[in-house]
Amino acid sequence: MRRSRFIGRSIGSAILLLTHQITVGGVFISPGNISLSLSGFFTGSGADGKNDVDKRLLDAIDFVTALLLM
């Protein structure tokens, strides 16, 4: 039961990342753990790039994160 909830949340998060509804706001790495801070439409804040290169970099980070969640 717990595994199916985790898979559902992961797929849901990946879909929201790919549709630009949420974005990765921060990555926190500690021994044995990686945590993501997500922001966007649902949280009331978001990360916006100042120029095209920044926006493409944020999109690439979101895409890689979505792939890892799947």
Strand content: 15-25%
Number of strands: 2
**Biggest sheet: strands side by side, in what order?**
1-2
Distance between the termini: 18 Å
Low-confidence stretches: none
Order of helices and strands: HEEH
Largest sheet: 2 strands, antiparallel
Radius of gyration: 13 Å
* Tally of separate helices: 2
- Shape from CA axes? globular
Overall mean confidence score, pLDDT? 80
Give helix % range.
40-55%
Q: Which structural category do the helix and sheet elements fall into? A: alpha+beta
Write up this protein.
With 70 residues, the chain is α+β, with helices and mostly antiparallel strands. It is built from 2 helices and 2 strands. The model has no long low-confidence stretch (mean pLDDT 80).
Mind sketching the topology for me?
Blueprint: H1 2-18, E1 22-30, E2 33-40, H2 52-69
Helix pairs in contact: 1-2
